[in-house]
Design a protein that fits this description.
about 425 residues, FAD/NAD(P)-binding domain, nine-stranded mixed sheet, six-stranded mixed sheet, 11 helices, about 35% helix, disordered C terminus, binds flavin-adenine dinucleotide
Length: about 425
């Protein structure tokens, strides 16, 4: 029998406790805002590999943000630094190599298993004083009343009314809340699927990441701690069914043929999973007191490893805006707060989407003229420092005006007495 519990109030409800929702909750730890996080999946058992066996390449800006959030040490302990990126075209003459040394950096990025990232973030928010977590729970209804917004949150047999001033929607690509809010999406189906697996090569990659454009589609091999590689092989969806159906050895043979022998023989492939790839964008980021972030706002092709990094820069900017509004007693969903957030993030979003989409189109194309042009482009990136810098800035998601967290700074200066934890 279903019961109705007494209602409760808070400032911000976060719907979705994936990597983005959890990061956002953590980013608001040091603010006076009262938060409620609603996540539909039951909490994974500690240290059990969760449903997501992917890895994420974190950019330097994500490292800064996680440092500012006090999570970087735990993440770094299970991450592999990327010290070189090799880009090549199967059967082509062009290649480019970018090195952290050349940029005066210790790493161009870090690869971290999603389950570790999720565990570190879940642990970081577990004792957070301004956060109440509802899990497993979901939103049965949402109603914008103008001066506040109400959600019916269903938990087991109980439905509770939660009133808030802002709802941050972080429930992923297939966001049901986005649909309830009547926000439409534009979608480009690339007709491609990403095949993911952890692969053990004969020789450890030692910090080298490989991006190779093969006859079947772009293939990334990223270094993992312990000498394995994280494979993301983008192929046509029809081809993916065949590759997914192969025995481990037959799959390794095809992978070896496409990747070559840069790391010696490929010895083992772990569990494969297939992810259909699309560019999805919500037509509106905000409706009344609801704001979309993460995959709910847009889902990118993973070829350039930008989706989470871009979302985390949004998280950092939004946390800064909400913190500043809270300190002076402003409504978190006030028109000027939302408008400034969206304006501050516009250029970075456009650049990142265009870079990712451009790479997919350029490197999925096998027309001879395009292949030749692409190889010339790779040579230019290799030979001309300006070309290389441009490519690296895009790949690392740089160029945007960084928020305080993205500069590694706390939201509030502890000396001004405005921290709240
Ligand atoms: C193959 C692949 C490789 C990638 N590699 C990279 C990379 O290297 N670097 C990078 O930056 N990005 C990468 N990405 C992108 C990155 O994975 C996503 O951007 C990121 O996972 C999005 O997180 P999210 O929290 O927005 O969404 P999700 O991870 O989908 O989380 C949504 C959460 O909401 C919950 N939820 C859903 N519905 C409800 C509801 N009604 N009520 C409550 N909770 C709900 C779900 O249970 C889930 O926990 C990759 C993506 C793919 C597919």
């Amino acid at each position: 029998m279903s019961t109705v519990a007494p209602g409760s109030g808070c400032d911000v409800v976060i719907v979705g406790g994936g990597l983005v929702g959890l990061s956002f909750a953590r980013a608001l730890a040091n603010t006076p805002l009262r938060l409620c996080l609603v996540e539909s999946n039951p909490a994974p058992a500690p240290s059990a590999p969760d449903h997501d066996d992917r890895n994420t390449a974190l950019s330097p800006s994500s490292r800064q943000i996680f440092s500012a959030l006090g999570c970087w040490q735990e993440i770094a302990a299970g991450a592999a630094p990327i010290t070189e990126i090799h880009v090549s075209d199967q059967g082509g003459f062009g290649r480019a190599c970018m090195r952290a040394d050349d940029e005066g950096m210790d790493a161009l990025g870090h690869v971290v298993p999603n389950c570790l990232l999720g565990e570190v973030l879940a642990e970081a928010v577990s004792g957070q004083r301004n956060l109440e977590t509802r899990q497993p729970a979901d939103v049965a209804a949402i109603q914008d009343a103008g001066d506040h917004i109400s959600l019916s949150v269903r938990e087991a047999d109980t439905t509770r009314l939660v009133h808030a001033r802002l709802v941050v929607v972080a429930d992923g690509s297939r966001s049901s809340l986005r649909e309830r809010l009547g926000i439409a999406v534009t979608e480009r189906d690339y007709g491609q699927t990403g095949i993911i697996a952890n692969v053990t090569p004969e020789r450890s990659p030692q910090g080298r990441a490989f991006e190779r454009f093969t006859a079947r589609g772009p293939l990334a091999m990223l270094p993992l701690p312990g000498g394995d590689c994280s494979l993301v092989w983008t192929v046509r969806s029809s081809e993916s069914e065949r590759l997914m159906g192969l025995s481990d050895q037959a799959f390794l043979d095809e992978l070896q043929q496409a990747f070559g022998f840069r790391l010696g023989r490929l010895l083992r492939a772990g569990r494969r999973s297939a992810w259909p790839l699309r560019l999805l964008r919500s037509r509106e980021r905000r409706k009344g007191r609801a704001l979309l972030i993460g995959n709910a706002a847009r889902t990118l092709h993973p070829v350039a490893g930008q989706g989470f990094n871009l979302a985390l820069r949004d998280v950092a900017e939004l946390a800064e805006r909400l913190h500043d509004a809270a300190v002076i007693g402003d409504d978190p969903a006030a028109e000027h707060v939302m408008a400034r957030f969206l304006a501050a993030r516009k250029a970075d979003e456009r650049r990142t989407i265009n870079f990712t989409d451009g790479l997919v189109r350029l490197f999925s194309n096998r027309l001879p003229g395009m292949v030749f042009g692409r190889n010339l482009g790779l040579m230019a990136v290799e030979l001309f420092p300006a070309g290389r810098r441009w490519f690296m800035r895009q790949a690392m998601g740089r160029g945007a005006r960084p928020s305080r967290l993205a500069r590694g700074l706390p939201l509030a200066d502890p000396r001004d007495g405005r921290t709240h934890e």
